[in-house]
């Protein structure tokens, strides 16, 4: 089994810098930018969710650490392609009123955000043509499916893949 580490991503970045790997096409980079935004949203969500104390703190910490690792990997790809990634300071996050007020409302929001991320990553895995971005999207999608189970039980044998437009529209409900 091959494990994709942050070091492997940085090595890929070095190959990009010296011309050893082709820069991903613009359509792939657009998906990478969208995925970066979903990671920033998830990081913000988990940070706020931890403050409530309503859910298992260890699981939320682990999920947030995963989101930060996902961001770092995607950011490395964008940086090496000459496109600095967005940061949390670039985005205003917004949530439904009362989303953090109770454990059930927090679970609903977490489920909605992880469903959005899973759909975006599945869409990227279908649409992206460059490697390692395509493989990374599939691997991160698997991790997002794990996160989703913290908020809702399994309910689909074939989760829905979102196009870049669908994912962007859904992300717009939480960002400005």
What is the fold's blueprint, element by element?
Blueprint: H1 6-17, H2 26-52, H3 57-80, H4 103-127, H5 133-148, H6 164-171
Helix pairs in contact: 1-3, 2-3, 2-4, 2-6, 3-5, 4-5, 4-6
Structural account:
The protein is mainly α. It has one domain (23-171): Ferritin (Up-down Bundle), CATH 1.20.1260. It is built from six helices and no strands. The protein has helices spanning 6-17, 26-52, 57-80, 103-127, 133-148, 164-171. Helix 2 runs antiparallel to helix 3. The radius of gyration is 16 Å and the shape is globular. Mean pLDDT is 90; it is low at 10-19.
What labels would you give this structure?
Ferritin; single chain; mainly alpha; 176 residues; globular
The domain tally reads 1
Q: Report the mean per-residue pLDDT as an integer.
A: 90
Return the CATH class. Answer: Mainly Alpha
Low-confidence stretches are: 10-19
**Span of the ends, CA to CA:** 40 Å
How many helix segments?
A: 6
Q: Portion of residues in helices?
A: 55-70%
| CATH homologous superfamily (4th level) name | Ferritin, core subunit, four-helix bundle
What percentage of the residues does DSSP assign to strands (E)?
A: under 5%
H-E string: HHHHHH
Shape type: globular
How many beta strands in the DSSP annotation? 0
Q: Kindly name the structural category.
A: mainly alpha
Mind summarizing the main beta sheet? none
**CATH topology type:** Ferritin
Radius of gyration: 16 Å
CATH architecture: Up-down Bundle
